[in-house]
């Protein structure tokens, strides 16, 4: 079990109309009790795997960044199998929104990234 720092609840609608709840959780960075001299963040993507997975990094911020990247990749894989929707906002979460290229820093003048459905 992880003490989540972040939890995102989504609904996955399969092409045949079946729906599933998907919950992505990321735990706060902790000094690793498993590997020496490193930090870890646990992640869990219910609907993708059943047990928390540790993500290791040399620093706390690296472990957290790698954990976010892995969750994004796992959700992107799910988005490729059906339609993901944020359960709070009702917003459609497109695979392109989870793509690494859409995460590049942008200047304030450029405004927020635009993803076309």
List the keywords:
7 strands, 117 residues, 7-stranded antiparallel sheet
Summarize this structure briefly.
This protein has 117 residues and is α+β, with helices and mostly antiparallel strands. It has one helix and seven strands; from the N terminus they run βββββαββ. It has one domain (4-103).
Kindly describe this structure:
This protein is α+β, with helices and mostly antiparallel strands. The protein has one domain (4-103). Helices cover 17% and strands 34% of the residues. The protein has one helix at residues 60-79, and strands at residues 4-13, 19-27, 30-31, 39-46, 53-57, 83-86, 92-93. Strand 4 (39-46) and strand 5 (53-57) form a beta hairpin. The chain is elongated and about 45 Å long.
Described by strand count, sense and barrel closure, the largest sheet is: 7 strands, antiparallel
The helix count comes to 1
Q: Give the overall shape.
A: elongated
Give the helix level as a range of percent: 10-25%
Query: Would you report the number of β strands?
Result: 7
What's the Cα radius of gyration? Answer: 16 Å
Low-confidence stretches: none
| End-to-end separation | 36 Å
Helix-strand makeup class: alpha+beta
| Strand portion | 25-35%
Mean pLDDT: 87
H/E element order: EEEEEHEE
Count of the domains: 1
């Amino acid at each position: 079990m992880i003490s989540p720092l972040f939890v995102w609840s989504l609904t996955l609608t399969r092409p045949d109309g079946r729906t599933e709840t998907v919950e992505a959780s990321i735990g706060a960075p902790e000094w690793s009790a498993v590997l020496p001299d490193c930090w870890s963040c646990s992640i869990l993507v219910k609907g993708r795997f059943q047990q928390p997975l540790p993500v290791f990094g040399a620093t706390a911020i690296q472990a957290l960044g790698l954990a976010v990247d892995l969750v994004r990749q796992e959700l992107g894989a799910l988005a490729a199998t059906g339609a993901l929707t944020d359960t709070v906002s009702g917003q459609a979460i497109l695979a392109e929104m989870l793509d690494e290229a859409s995460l590049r820093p942008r200047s304030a003048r450029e405004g927020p990234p635009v993803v076309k459905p």
